[in-house]
Amino acid sequence: MKVVVYSTKQYERAYLEKSNRGKHDFLFLEEVLSVKTVELAKECSAVSIFTNDDASSEVLKQLANLNIKSITTRAAGYDNIDLNEAEKLNLKITNVPEYSPYAIAEHTVAMILAMNRKIVQADRQVKNYNFALDDLIGFDLHGKTVGIIGLGKIGSIVAKILNGFGCKLLGYDIEQNEALTKAYGMEYVSLGKLCKIADIITLHAPLNTNTHYIINKENLQLMKKGVMIVNTGRGGLVNTADALDALKEGKIGYLGLDVYEKEKGLFFYDHSRDIPQDDLFACLLPYKNVLITGHQAFLTENALGNIADTTIYNLDCFQKSEQSLHELTGKKPAVRV
Asked: 101-292 in CATH: which number?
């Protein structure tokens, strides 16, 4: 079966080819799927996309006109796919619901530690033979209150890790997991209470109409002065303009972002020779208390292997006219990540 793979990155191609074992004929493209590139899927039977590809209504219609019957995303989230339109067009949509929740959870904690202990600043100072410690004071994680928004697989692992540090854990989610309460003393609270009490807030919720801009001016005003916020979930969970204002005011003491609401076309590419086009993003960069990674929390060997294996499984199911365990159309599951 001929499959066009949009947004292909060099680091993932080898994993996909290894998992494929020659079963499917891949057309690897660096281009992002859009109304301008949809014609590149001509004569293919299926499409593989990633988080920044455009699978909106108009694009899906054009894919259907090319006789595409299946789209599989190499990610857990699918807020870039119009599932309602896919249903109307009888397109099968599949995802990779879990690849390595440990990868993202561990990256989250790495960001917390790096900001708290000022690792990046310390490294720069030492490489300049500056061994002064005056600007490198951090705090003990032990005894701090951490608010976790979204307690699916990733959030639960973050809770387990931070429990090991001796943190007090607050949780906010649409469902309560009694196992977390019993194992780690997790206390489920309202969003408002979490914002008021937490020293550190970390985001692991899916992006939908209820969670879009869950970190906004109103909730920021509730938070402690100097709060640490980490987002390794979805860029749209944080209103970046409001967060920037809170940084200027000193309300946010530390901001860690692995995702960004306007990352499409920015993250995953080398723009080192380009003139910055996003003024909002550029305003974040000079802050010493801001740590940004370019959507790399998922990027481990384990995760890439699992993503590739599940992607091939989804394609195999379509070719065999079998239902994948990860089919999104027809059931519209609430993905918990």
From this structure: 3.40.50.720
Q: How far apart are CA 270 and CA 231, in angstroms?
A: 22
User: Are the CB atoms for 205 and 214 separated by under 8 Å?
Assistant: yes
Rounded-to-integer distance, Cα 226 and Cα 247, Å: 9
Distance set, CA 14 to CA 119, 162, 170, 305 (Å): 32, 34, 40, 9
Domain 2-99+301-319 CATH assignment equals 3.40.50.720: yes
Domain boundaries, the chain: 2-99+301-319, 101-292
pLDDT (0 to 100) of residue 331: 58
Point out the residues of the chain with pLDDT beneath 50: 332-337
The whole-angstrom separation of Cα 257 and Cα 29 is 28
pLDDT for residue 31: 96
**Per-residue pLDDT reduced to its tens digit, 122-156:** 999 999 999 999 999 999 999 999 999 999 999 99
Phi, psi of 215, rounded to the nearest 5 degrees: -100, 105
pLDDT value of residue 77: 87
Length of the chain: 337
Query: Average pLDDT over the chain, rounded to whole?
Result: 95
Residue 95 CA to residue 270 CA, distance in Å, equals: 27
Instruction: Give the active site residues.
Output: 234, 263, 295
Identical fold between 2-99+301-319 and 101-292: yes
